[in-house]
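haha ok so turns out i had the wrong file open the whole time. this is the CORRECT one, sorry everyone. sequence first:
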Amino acid sequence: MTRFQRAAFAAASAAVCIAGLGACGSTHSVRGKVVSGDIGIVTLVPEQDARLASVEAPAGIPGVTVELRRADAVIASAESGLDGSFTMKLDRSRSGTRYNVVALGPSIFPVRSTSYPPGRGQVMLVVADERRGASSR
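then structure:
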């Protein structure tokens, strides 16, 4: 490849990035919350879902590591805070991809599910069965 061809290729690549077609490393935030429930499941819910912030909302579970995996490789991860909420960064070029979601922590039984990342106006809700006597609250 000549120097001119490399320069043309670089310019074309930059144009794709600027147009937003390739995402080019830009990220978006995947937000969610880990709450207690009778069975481990991952689901996408609207931001206004009552389980996220209302007075009747289940207490969040802190200290849970939530991972998005693809072929056993961790693509993104975050740890839930005191209120059970978490935020992780995900490359925009991967946002339409289905992932294995794994939630692990000393106070819960492992949760394994498959999900797409949340879309606009959605949050990832991780419902986990807590181990009796191992609550981190």
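Confidence is low (pLDDT under 50) at residues 4-23.
again sry for the mixup
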